[in-house]
Amino acid sequence: MTDTSTKSYTLIDGRKIAGEIKQEIADKVVERRQAGKKIPHLAFILVGDDGASQTYVDHKVKACKDVGYHYTMMRFADTISEEKLSKHITAVNNDDDVDGFIVQLPLPSHISVERITDKIRPDKDVDGFTNRNFGSIISKVPLLMPATPFGVMELLRRYNIQTEGKNCVVVGASRIAGAPLSMMLVEQGHATVTICHKYTQNLKDYTQHADILLVAVGKPGLVTADMVKEGAVVIDIGTTKVDDPSKPNGFSIKGDVDFKNVAPKCTFITPVPGGVGPMTIASLLLNTLRATELRHP
After folding, report:
1. Which of 14, 172, 220, 226 has the smallest count of CB within 10 Å of its CB?
2. Do the domain assignments include residue 282?
3. Is residue 117 domain-shared with residue 192, that is, in the same domain?
4. Do 196 and 109 share a structural domain?
5. Of the residues 99, 123, 125, 127, which is catalytic?
6. What's the domain range around 242?
7. Are residues 153 and 273 in the same domain?
8. What does the pLDDT look like over 165-176, one tens digit per residue?
9. Which of these, 8, 9, 12, lies nearest to 274 by C-alpha position?
């Protein structure tokens, strides 16, 4: 009998790949500067004082500094009306110096995320959330792709993980991750894709047959070893804060996959944290560069 507990697997290092991407972008920024071309400019709109949102934006600002982008931070009180926020978005849309911008989510409950997102110019929507960008995934020339799925596809590509003809199962159908990722796997990866969601019955029946299993639900430990076939590739996109008194900050970040028990069955697997997470910011930077190149070749 084979002892699968000692089976080797390759850890997909998102931090390493994100670092490589940032260096590639920084080199292109230097080339643009030397050629007298426009330097990418990314703007951030942050509403309220949510601590997690501030942390996310701080990470994105640091990333801009790392690669040499210009950036602008716009902060508004959580009492701002949807009408006033819309006017600020229109102003950014019309500012030719801003190549891309992000409205950090979540927004206060009195503001419609759908209406606000719909006001962002698609060619500046580096999150890839607008209907036009979402729909462009199935075109031959996508505009700006949703950042997290874009990061997942880049990880697969850079680790030379073949998707063509593979059976991919995506667990989670959110517009931010699961739904666009499934479209990318079909259109760009030429994979056979099954999407599972909260209404799927007997989830294990699907996940056990996945060559590549991609999970984006937000339920720590949802995927256990008995749900994964031997030799699978597992991409864990879930990130959930879990109370952890042993940590200085009092919490840990957990993924949707029971990593300890699933990893020995895999050929490749992403950790949480340090897997897909860093790639989201790298993707935002790539989208910003693409937005700049499209408008200012």
Report:
1. 226
2. no
3. no
4. no
5. 127
6. 146-277
7. yes
8. 999 999 999 999
9. 12
Three-class SS state of 273: coil
Helix 147-158 with 277-295: angle, nearest 10 deg = 100
Question: Which structure tokens are listed for 185?
Answer: 């796997």
Contact 126, 287 (CB under 8 A): yes
Both 61 and 159 in one domain: the answer is: no
Catalytic (active site) residue 104: yes
Concerning whether 127 is annotated as a catalytic residue, the answer is yes
Phi first, then psi, for residue 196 (nearest 5°) are -110, 150
158 and 114 in one domain? Answer: no
Give the tens place of pLDDT for each residue, 37-77: 999 999 999 999 888 888 889 999 999 999 999 999 999 99
Is residue 109 domain-resident? yes
Query: pLDDT for 176-218, tens place per residue?
Result: 999 999 999 999 999 999 999 999 999 999 999 999 999 999 9
- CA-to-CA distance for 102 and 30, rounded, in angstroms? 24
pTM (whole model) above 0.90: yes
Residues 100 and 197 in one domain: no
Tally of domains in the chain: 2
Domain identity same for 181 and 271? yes
Q: How far is CA 120 from CA 64, 90, 114, 187, in A?
A: 20, 8, 10, 25
Among residues 22, 60, 124, 254, which one is catalytic?
A: 60
Task: Look at residue 2 and tell me whether its pLDDT is greater than 50.
Answer: no
What are the φ/ψ torsions at residue 194 (nearest 5 degrees)?
-115, 130
To the nearest 10 degrees (0 to 180), the angle between helices 147-158 and 178-187 is 40
225 and 113 in a common domain: no
**Annotated catalytic residue: which of 104, 123, 256, 265?**
104
273 has pLDDT over 70: yes
